[in-house]
């Protein structure tokens, strides 16, 4: 079995890259050990975050650091046994999250975010997935005037510097938008540009069906079996149907990218932030109308097709250790006081891993030491948002075209001595 390009990973980044390569005349086989969007692309908050210009940084104020050190919050949790192994990553992450560094990173990151809606819109239209999309933004709601006013000031700066639109909401306006919320709130903030997804996995399956309609194939395979075909110019990977060879290979494996990169001699400072979700019904007569962040408590509620999805913050732990959904239990207790959630609809909490770099930007581009090897991973909290624009710029780069944005800031070499 032979193809022009093997794309490893059938999440949003891999599927998007495969589509853009097919559109440019390449034959493409998408390879995953599971099905489409069964890992990180399955369990997110379902947002295309046009407002997410500033990637999530590491807190620098002492109060937040002390609060997280106690290890009893909803928005962050850690396994003590995992900390020694990720101290080098955390130190670099903390440094890049400093005010000046974070401001600079936002300006480098902005071109990706600015193209997130338009590139998703292209694939949504092509795959006939409009029924899975809402275009009315999402809301933050606030319990204190201090947090509200800080958020308003930050939103004004973001709008002025990056053209992101927002609306400030009074307590009455929040109540009109969400009459079933029971918390005592001081107001809200609606980001009006983002789009929301009623079922992220269903959207990815539509994208996959479009990929297949163009002639692409999805096969089961183990990325760890990859080998460079030294006698020729290409790559080989094992599949249940036999070896698959491709002239080029794209590593779009998210938090599992190191199964390939380490084997080939690359040591990227890639860590994971694990996260959890659970779906719930609503008590009779109650309805959640919007995607809502309870800003001071650090959890998210999203009205999806499978129920109201509650998502947690970040858990710092080894990627493959057992689930410890303590944040979900903490969040559920608070969320039930905030909104009349009913029964759990999942047999157990879902857990996924976000692939993170210390400078909070993805790794996109050609591998510096191997011909025909390309990287597209490390999108952290914004994989769903940035998948289509990543796929487009990587395909453009692979074909020698002029990329729609400068991808120099995301080049792999920035982490390779």
Describe this entry's structure for a reader.
The protein has eleven helices and 22 strands. Strands 6, 7, 8, 14, 15, 16, 17, 19 and 20 form a nine-stranded mixed β-sheet that branches. Strands 1, 2, 10, 11, 12, 13, 21 and 22 form an eight-stranded mixed β-sheet that branches. The longest helix has 18 residues, at 145-162. It has helices at residues 12-23, 62-69, 83-96, 99-114, 116-127, 145-162, 171-177, 200-213, 258-261, 326-338, 383-398, and strands at 2-8, 28-32, 47-48, 76-78, 133-134, 138-142, 166-169, 187-191, 195-197, 217-220, 227-229, 234-239, 242-251, 271-282, 292-294, 299-304, 307-311, 314-316, 341-344, 350-356, 363-366, 373-377. By secondary structure, the chain is an alpha/beta fold. It is globular. The mean pLDDT is 95.
């Amino acid at each position: 079995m032979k193809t022009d390009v093997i794309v490893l990973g059938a999440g949003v980044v891999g599927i998007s890259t495969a589509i853009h390569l097919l559109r440019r005349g390449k034959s493409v086989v998408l390879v995953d050990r599971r099905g489409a969007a069964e890992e990180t692309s399955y369990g997110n908050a379902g947002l295309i975050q046009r407002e997410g210009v500033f990637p999530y940084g590491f807190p620098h104020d002492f109060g937040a650091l002390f609060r997280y050190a106690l290890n009893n919050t909803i928005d962050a949790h850690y396994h003590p046994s995992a900390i020694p192994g990720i101290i080098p990553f955390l130190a670099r992450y903390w440094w890049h999250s400093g005010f000046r560094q974070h401001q600079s990173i936002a300006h480098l990151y902005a071109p990706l975010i600015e193209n997130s809606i338009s590139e998703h819109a292209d694939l949504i239209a092509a795959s006939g997935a409009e029924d899975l999309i809402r275009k009315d933004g999402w809301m933050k709601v606030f319990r204190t005037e201090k947090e509200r006013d800080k958020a308003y000031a930050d939103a004004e700066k973001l709008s002025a510097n990056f053209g992101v639109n927002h609306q400030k909401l009074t307590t009455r306006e929040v109540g009109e938008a969400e009459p079933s919320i029971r918390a005592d709130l001081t107001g809200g903030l609606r980001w009006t540009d983002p789009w929301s997804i009623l079922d992220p996995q269903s959207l990815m399956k539509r994208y996959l069906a479009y990929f297949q309609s163009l002639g692409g194939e999805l096969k089961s395979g183990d990325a760890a079996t990859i080998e460079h075909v030294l006698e020729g110019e290409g790559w080989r990977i094992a599949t249940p149907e036999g070896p698959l060879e491709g002239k080029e290979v794209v590593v779009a494996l998210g938090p599992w990218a190191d199964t390939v990169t380490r084997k080939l001699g690359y040591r990227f400072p890639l860590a994971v932030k694990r996260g959890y979700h659970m779906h719930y019904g609503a008590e009779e007569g109650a309805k959640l109308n919007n995607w809502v962040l309870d800003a001071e408590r650090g959890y998210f509620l999203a009205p999806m097709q499978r129920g109201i999805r509650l998502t947690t913050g970040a858990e710092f732990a080894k990627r493959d250790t057992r689930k410890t959904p303590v944040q979900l239990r903490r969040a559920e207790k608070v969320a039930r006081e905030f909104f009349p959630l009913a029964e759990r609809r999942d047999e157990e909490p879902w857990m996924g891993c976000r692939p993170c770099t210390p400078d909070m930007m993805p790794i996109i581009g050609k591998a510096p030491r191997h011909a025909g090897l390309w990287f597209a991973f490390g999108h952290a909290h914004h994989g769903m948002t940035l998948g289509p624009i990543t796929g487009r710029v990587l395909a453009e780069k692979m074909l020698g075209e002029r990329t729609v944005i400068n991808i120099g800031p995301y080049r792999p070499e920035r982490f390779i001595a």
